[in-house]
Amino acid sequence: MERERYIRQKWGTEPLIEIADALQIELAELLELAFVYELYEQETPSLRRRWDPQEEAFLQKYSDRLSIKEASHLLYRSHYATYQRVRYLGLDEMVKRK
User: Fold this and answer.
1) Which of 12, 13, 39, 92 is most buried, by the most CB atoms less than 10 A from its CB?
2) Origin, by domain of life (predicted)?
3) Residue closest to 44 by CA, chosen among 56, 23, 30
């Protein structure tokens, strides 16, 4: 419960990698937890940075359950950047989700 509270408190205000580092977990695990806690409903800042392989793996794993908007909230990315990466990865099922 302490971990969930910490993530919810920091979500959208601190970079993902800093949250993961503070909890001593991998980015992939943090994204999994954020999905479970339904943090995809909360808007987050759009930070410009290179795509991490863990972020791409997350998109591939959850492409059948998340919309591009929800994924962009989890990844702290703009809708457009997420859309472009989804198209690049060939995740057409995500493009069709609203």
Assistant:
1) 39
2) Bacteria
3) 30
